[in-house]
Amino acid sequence: MLWKxxxxxxxxxxxxxxxxxVSVVVGMVAMxxxxxxxxxxxxxxxxxxVSLEVxxxxxxxxxxxDNPSIKLLIERPDEVEAVIRQHPEVLHHARRVLTYGILSxxxxxxxxxxxxxxxEAERQITxxxxxxxxxxxxxxxxxxxxxxxGLARKLEVSLGDKVVAMASRLxxxxxxxxxxxxxxxxTFDSEHDKVTMYIPLETAQHMLGLGDAVSEFVxxxxxxxxxxxxxxxxxxxxxxxxxxxxxxxxLPLLVYQSEAMAQWMMIYYVIIGIALVFGxxxxxxxxxFERMQEIGVLKAIGMPNRxxxxxxxxxxxxxGLLGTVIGxxxxxxxxxxxxxxxxxxxxxxxxxxxxGVGAVIYPVMDLRILLSAGVSIPIVALVGAIYPAIKAVRFxxxxxxxxx
Amino acid sequence: MEIIxxxxxxxxxxxxxxxxxALKGIDLSISAGEFTVIAGPSxxxxxxxxxxxxxxxxxxxxxxxxxxxxxxxxSKGQLAxxxxxxxxxxxxxxxxxxxxxxxxxxxxxxxxxxxxEKERRRRALALMEELGIAELANxxxxxxxxxxxxxxAVARAIVNDPTIVxxxxxxxxxDSVTGSRLLDLMERMNREHNITFxxxxxxxxxxxxxxxxxxxRDGLIEKEDVRxxxxxxG
Lengths: 404, 234
Hints:
A: 404 residues; six-stranded mixed β-barrel; 15 helices; 19% strand; B: four-stranded antiparallel β-sheet; globular
């Protein structure tokens, strides 16, 4: 019967209950969608980095990740490849040579990351082949180069122009070669596009005097949840001169950001929660003082304090639960189309691109968000009603019944 | 059998730091089955006396015994429990719970006592039938007249078979005909079920119905009248 009384009491002042309900729902939807948006953004950055260059797993000569020197090479790549092939979980793998150098045009020059790839294998792993905005992707021909739009602007070159790349060879001398721009690409990461050039693997091996040696193997696994298991297995099977790293190992900052974001969201939840608590305290106090005489009567006819307390807390908790259900419903109604179409933030595309995020953010609503919002709001409602409930308990029946 | 006894009962209120002596030493005994009216003008201390007998308030001095138990020694929780189990209240302004129907209002105190839903429903409906208010079962207080609400309040007060029913000016908000019918009802319950009623009033029509009259003036019992039998109904 207490539930019945609490429920009916809620609707005695419909306008007040609806106003607090709307504020609970708005707060909850704001919490859910902001969290989903940030979660989506962080995941997108992580996914973008994985699909742009990092892959799921990388294998290098030990120490290469900390100090990516041309001298730290996988000298017998076939041996490593044989171990990779023993893992059916690995969907694709590719070899790369990575180094730094200078790329010069007739007008300008710029420091660059030289990424040398097996064009067809790379096509299976990264998005670079799908990011061409002018010209074509690499075919594996000697002297062909792909550069980013930003780099092209910087060097004041266009499709078909010649550029000269220079980099340290393995023997310490300077290796250089002339390349013709066969394609210009644009990714979601404008910083990457300003400093990265792609050339065929064999061209780089020749230019740098590496023979068959490579800097790294990059792997994609069939199921991202298998990444750690595959990494550990490869680590066990490969000689200790190699390091095997997952994308989480390679991008610790992004992983940290992702975890930190979850913590920041908790602070955000607390801030919204505190605002809602004040709203609920105010509403419930009004409700309690409006019904002071009635509460006095209830106590006079023998209602124990714990039941008076329960009645007030129940009212607020029901309000919180109702707000939660409606909030989740409204939140999902807004989230559902957004998760498919994405939220177009092209107005901020320049700044987002510098963070490695596309102009369209796809929010991600996961169980953590639903649980955080779904549990926190009823708790907030309960906490907000404690003070008014204590006030109600402290009413003396005789005094309260005189109150009009 | 004595159910209420007060000894030198005093109550002093502070009105803007000025002490107001509402009761100045009341010695009183009420036995089971009485139909007692505490009469007196406004400010004579009727409601204060009922509040002290009803365990709603604590005396400044003196004692109240309910079935031999000293109420002044009880905690607030124990007093609430005594009110729930031993005392029925009828208020001037009816004071039904506005969000509950008549039936639910009558069931309410049984719910607080932990009586199972089926049993309390059965008892509430049987009592409503007996009091002639069965048709009000699903009506909320706002859908009932004052007389109907007060009948439901009577049902709420007696449904737990209390030791005593205290009614503070129960007819003050009712017209004379409705008030008279309510008194008939309470007299019938007193006669047929031996329920002890103590009510306060300053209305001569109510006072004349009491079998025992306690006249209160300035916080003291001025005189006491006892009649052998209640006047006939109607």
